[in-house]
Amino acid sequence: xxxxxxxxxxxxxxxxxxxxxxxxxxxxxxxxxxxxxxxxxxxxxxxxxxxxxxxxxxxxxxxxxxxxxxxxxxxxxxxxxxxxxxxxxxxxxxxxxxxxxxxxxxxxxxxxxxxxxxxxxxxxxxxxxxxxxxxxxxxxxxxxxxxxxxxxxxxxxxxxxxxxxxxxxxxxxxxxxxxxxxxxxxxxxxxxxxxxxxxxxxxxxxxxxxxxxxxxxxxxxxxxxxxxxxxxxxxxxxxxxxxxxxxxxxxxxxxxxxxxxxxxxxxxxxxxxxxxxxxxxxxxxxxxxxxxxxxxxxxxxxxxxxxxxxxxxxxxxxxxxxxxxxxxxxxxxxxxxxxxxxxxxxxxxxxxxxxxxxxxxxxxxxx
Amino acid sequence: xxxxxxxxxxxxxxxxxxxxxxxxxxxxxxxxxxxxxxxxxxxxxxxxxxxxxxxxxxxxxxxxxxxxxxxxxxxxxxxxxxxxxxxxxxxxxxxxxxxxxxxxxxxxxxxxxxxxxxxxxxxxxxxxxxxxxxxxxxxxxxxxxxxxxxxxxxxxxxxxxxxxxxxxxxxxxxxxxxxxxxxxxxxxxxxxxxxxxxxxxxxxxxxxxxxxxxxx
Lengths: 367, 216
Prior knowledge:
The complex is a heterodimer. Chain A is of the alpha/beta class. Chain A contains 18 helices and 17 strands. Chain A has 2 domains: 2-247, Rossmann fold, CATH 3.40.50; 250-366, CBS-domain, CATH 3.10.580. In chain A, strands 6-7-8-3-9-10 form a 6-stranded mixed beta sheet, with helices on both faces. Chain A has a 4-stranded antiparallel beta sheet with strand order 2-1-4-5, covered by helices on one side. Chain A starts with a strand and ends with a helix. Chain B is mainly alpha-helical. Chain B has 9 helices and no strands. Chain B has helices at 2-9, 11-42, 47-62, 65-77, 85-109, 113-121, 126-157, 169-177, 181-209. In chain B, helix 8 packs antiparallel against helix 9. Chain B starts with a helix and ends in a 7-residue tail after the last helix. Classes of the chains: A alpha/beta, B mainly alpha. Chain A binds chain B through residues 48, 50, 70-76, 79, 81, 83-91, 98-99, 102, 132-134, 148-149, 158, and chain B through 112, 114-115, 117-125, 128, 132-133, 136-137, 211-214.
């Protein structure tokens, strides 16, 4: 855990960081967010003492960092910067092994680890270990930059707008990769960003800074649902409710144990089941429960026969682990008011409706 | 034709003078690398200091070599070394300072600040940063400065013969005083060839010392 206690930094006559108190729990991804000059980068750099605090204390796992030699402290904290900063005179392997080499690790151990870490970010060690940074694309370089910070397995990672200089398509990919690695390694991450979308995507906690003060420190959903003041509300944007869609999974919004029919059921059964639930349509599933299609009430009510003869395609199918942003996007693009939800095996497990999503967002916005 | 005959007849002497020349320049440049690179690194810490040091080094460069030798005579006479090897060595060291200091300083100042920040953030000490990041990246430019200094020194060392330092300049000075074109051409040719060979050798060294990651 990282704890900041009344941390202050004064440059000359300017108070860059003003009495910041903050706890970052172990395994959290804390995004420091704010306009430029708000003190977020200074705050982060005080954690590894690249900038010494003017006053206040910073603890990592209960130890006061002021009592640790700064070189030792920095070797125990991973550091990733926007400009990447790979050493051009060293190979990818040597770059990754920088901190293990400084710590005097066994070479074989550190080299093996470099190869493992490269595969973790989808770079083939056989191809990339012996390359030089200039032979890599920007996205590949930043993957190596992240891996280099992880090489000595530090419990804490500091990242200064790490994906800011990468093109939008690659940025999404690298963010996703990083989230996957983080889910596995559970580092305590302090991450500086000025991009609210990135923060909402990556953060377990968001700290919003303004003019050196910590204005609001909370989970992304709370910040989007209940901004502390008009500055935060403006900063997170007028579309903050839409941004929340990204934070909520389909499984949290869907109606579970939905009514269903199978191909052999008669239309009468289907109609009766729709009327019972007040639905305008019903999903037909296969023998093992996979969503196959649907029957519409208005088309089925005066006809005879079995379901499989009248089935029409579903308006859309979404995975339960997708976020609501994707769900809403799919609804809009298909002109649908509801979507069938399936699990990893394609089994029909529920449905989401536009009305249900609206109610969910409205309910927590008023909390 | 006469010159060729002269060269063939005097090969052992030419070789001896060449060795003298190389030893003088080699010693001067070796010492100049040590002092110049050190000073070049030192002045990266202060812009004001850098400006002053580079100014002084540039002023030294503007002193005509023959005048510098002349200036050193009374000073070094105090320790009985007014003429000969020592004043020549000192003059050559002084002339080498500007290219080496300037290139070292410029190369280190041009290292991307992001690399310095990354190195600091990962817990390198100043010496580790200098040794594993800044100097290897600056090396090609520093060696360029050394190449300048060597070529310059080979030329200036030819004049050092006037204060009794020997070397290939002896042929030139005798060629002038005895109006002997053969000696004059021999000396000039030898100095030129030596300068070209030394430059090529250092170019090869520069390529070998440059990390493949820094080559174009």
